[in-house]
UniProtKB/TrEMBL annotation:
Span of domain Cyclic nucleotide-binding: 1-77
Name of the featured protein: Cyclic nucleotide-binding domain-containing protein
Domain of life: Bacteria
Gene3D superfamilies: Jelly Rolls
InterPro entries cross-referenced by the UniProt entry: cNMP-bd_dom, cNMP-bd_dom_sf, RmlC-like_jellyroll
PROSITE patterns xref list: CNMP_BINDING_3
Length: 77
């Protein structure tokens, strides 16, 4: 099944305000997020607080742990 269709049929839609963190560095990320519109910034923060941008996630892209999402769908059913 195409990933976008899988997310549409089994996912939950949510709206996130600008500046809101979806998950933080070091968190266990149990989900995959589909960016329907907007732009997300993925970044690391060093021990001294310096932010380093890893990438930008644009509209119609995904971010998150595919391994964790696969496990949520298949490991516990």
């Amino acid at each position: 099944m195409e990933l976008q269709k899988l997310i549409a049929s089994h996912g939950t839609q949510c709206q996130v305000d600008k500046g809101t963190r979806i998950f933080n560095q070091g968190d266990n990320c149990d989900y995959v997020y589909w960016v329907e519109s907007g732009l997300l910034k993925a970044f690391y923060v060093t021990a001294n607080g310096k932010e380093t941008i890893k990438s930008f996630i644009k509209q119609d892209s995904i971010i998150g742990s595919l391994n964790a999402a696969y496990c949520q769908v298949n490991c516990f059913n």
